[in-house]
Amino acid sequence: MLMRTDPFRELDRLTAQLLGNPGTGTWSRPNAMPMDAYRDGDQFVVCFDLPGISPDAIELDVERNVLTVKAERRPARTGEKVEMQVSERPLGVFSRQLFLGDTLDTEHIAADYSSGVLTLRIPVAEKAKPRRIEISTGEPDHKEITA
C-alpha cells in the first residue's frame, strides 16, 4: 500500500560501495539517505536521516505518485587557508524516490525537519479508508392489490 523503492538504485549503491571510484584506487562511501516508514492510524510516516543538511537544501516533489526527496550536503569549511585533514562525511547531492500507492493522499503531505530528521506524513485517501456498508434484508415490500 505504501511504497516500494527502485531496485536499480540499490544495485547502484551496492556497486559503488564495493568497487569504489574506478581508476582512482579509492573506496567511496555511498550517498545514503536512510529511512524508516510505518503506518500510524490513518497516515503513513516516512523519516529520512539527513544530518548536517540545511533545511533550504532539501527539495520535495510529487509527480504521478512518485515522491522525490533531494538534499545537498555542502562543505562546512570556509576560507582559503582551510586545509582538510580528515574527510569521511559524504558531501554532494543525495536523492531518493518512493513510489506511493493510489490509496495515499499526495495532495496533503506534511513535511517537518528537526534535529537532522526529515519527517513526512502522508494521509490515507478517504476512498481507501474502511467504511461500513449497510445490509438490506432483501425482503420486498408486499402490497395488496385489490380489484
Characterize the largest beta sheet: strand count, sense, and whether it forms a barrel: 4 strands, antiparallel
User: What oligomeric state do these chains adopt?
Assistant: single chain
Low-pLDDT runs: 21-30
The CATH topology annotation reads as Immunoglobulin-like
Structural class by SSE content: mainly beta
Task: Write down the Rg.
Answer: 25 Å
| Architecture (CATH level 2) name | Sandwich
Compute the number of strand runs: 8
Total discrete domains:
1
Portion in beta strands: 25-35%
Can you describe this structure?
By secondary structure, the chain is mainly beta. It is 9% helix and 35% strand. The protein has one domain: Immunoglobulin-like (Sandwich), CATH 2.60.40.790. It contains one helix and eight strands, in the order E-H-E-E-E-E-E-E-E. The strands form two sheets. A four-stranded antiparallel β-sheet has the order 1-6-5-4. About 7% of the residues have low confidence. It holds the Pfam family HSP20. This is Hsp20/alpha crystallin family protein.
Structure, briefly:
This is Hsp20/alpha crystallin family protein. With 147 residues, the protein is mainly beta.
